[in-house]
Design goal:
alpha+beta; four-stranded mixed β-sheet
Length: 160
């Protein structure tokens, strides 16, 4: 078997309306089903959920949010097994990353970090349920294909 690409991500969320608004309005995903989607019902697959794809329409869905209720157990703090974060690329220049910062600030998104990873410049934010998301740009002229060790370079503070 050969993996061709990462297909989609599914997240449990406390409140699908709140989370759908975050992923749609703050992060710019195209909502295709669920509450708030144009012409869509309130449910996806018979349960409270919302599906999204990137604006480029690469695939049928790249993100699915499934509501589990306000009483759901929160994410453990500190080091733990499971998802650490997922990344979304927003461009190839620091100007695009600065524009993302401005947009995210306008939506009161919580920032938890920023790093220069040599191959990427990355911001770290939290969604309404505390899932960490890396918002990044690829650094131009870094040839990681010819030198894969660049991917493992130590992280440095990011200055935008």
């Amino acid at each position: 078997m050969e993996v061709k690409e990462l297909g989609h991500l599914v997240l449990y969320v406390r409140n699908v309306d709140r989370s759908a608004a975050f992923y749609r309005d703050a992060l710019g995903w195209r909502q295709i089903t669920g509450p708030g989607a144009p012409g869509a019902g309130e449910r996806t697959g018979g349960f409270p959920a919302a599906a999204f794809s990137a604006p480029n329409g690469r695939t049928h869905h790249e993100l699915l949010l499934i509501e589990v209720g306000e009483g759901a157990q929160g994410l453990p703090q500190g080091r733990h097994i499971g998802l650490y974060h997922f990344g979304i690329k927003v461009g190839d220049t620091d100007d695009e990353l600065r524009a993302a910062v401005t947009h995210l600030q306008e939506h009161d998104v919580r920032f938890v970090g920023a790093s220069d990873h040599t191959v990427t410049h990355s911001l770290y934010i939290l969604d309404p349920d505390g899932n960490e998301i890396e918002v990044y740009v690829d650094v131009p002229d870094v040839d990681w294909r010819s030198d894969p060790t660049l991917f493992a370079a130590p992280a440095r503070p990011l200055s935008l």
